[in-house]
Design goal:
This protein is mostly beta strands and 124 residues long. It has strands spanning 2-7, 10-13, 18-26, 33-39, 46-52, 58-60, 68-73, 78-83, 92-99, 113-114, 118-123. It has no helices and eleven strands. The chain starts with a strand and ends with a strand.
C-alpha cells in the first residue's frame, strides 16, 4: 500500500497560480504512475493529469492543457502540480492518486491509493 499526503491548496483569485504537492511513502513507486483528480461542488470526480514515475509520459485533461504542469521528483518521492491561470471552474478538492500501471491511466478505477484531498478555491 502507498500512503499519499497532499499539500498546497488554498484560495486564489482568477488568473493566479498555485502549486500542489503529493508526498508518497510505503512501497516502492518507481515503476508506476501518479495522477491528480478533482471533484468540484456537485460534480463527479474527474481526471486532471497523470505522470509515469519515470517522467517519460504525461497526460492532461483538455480543460487544463497549457495551464497545468505535472512533475515528479523521484529522489523525494513527490509529485507536483503547477496550476497557472486558474479559473473559477478549477475550484474543487484535488486528490493525488497512485496506480501500479506505468502507462499513465486516466480512469480513476485503475488507481489503488488515494490521498485525503486538498481544497483549491478560485474566486472571480
Amino acid at each position: 500500500q502507498v500512503q499519499l499526503v497532499e499539500s498546497g491548496g488554498g484560495l486564489v483569485q482568477a488568473g493566479g497560480s498555485l502549486r500542489l504537492s503529493c508526498a508518497a511513502s510505503g512501497r516502492s513507486i518507481s515503476v508506476s504512475s501518479m495522477g491528480w483528480f478533482r471533484q468540484g461542488p456537485g460534480k463527479e470526480r474527474e481526471f486532471v493529469a497523470c505522470i509515469s514515475m519515470s517522467g517519460a509520459r504525461t497526460r492532461y485533461a483538455d480543460s487544463v492543457k497549457g495551464r497545468f504542469t505535472i512533475s515528479v521528483d523521484n529522489a523525494k518521492n513527490t509529485v507536483g502540480l503547477q496550476m497557472n491561470n486558474l479559473k473559477p471552474e478549477d475550484t474543487a478538492v484535488y486528490y493525488c492518486a497512485h496506480s501500479m500501471n506505468f502507462y499513465c491511466p486516466t480512469n480513476s478505477n485503475i488507481f489503488g491509493s488515494w490521498g485525503q484531498g486538498t481544497q483549491v478555491t478560485v474566486s472571480s
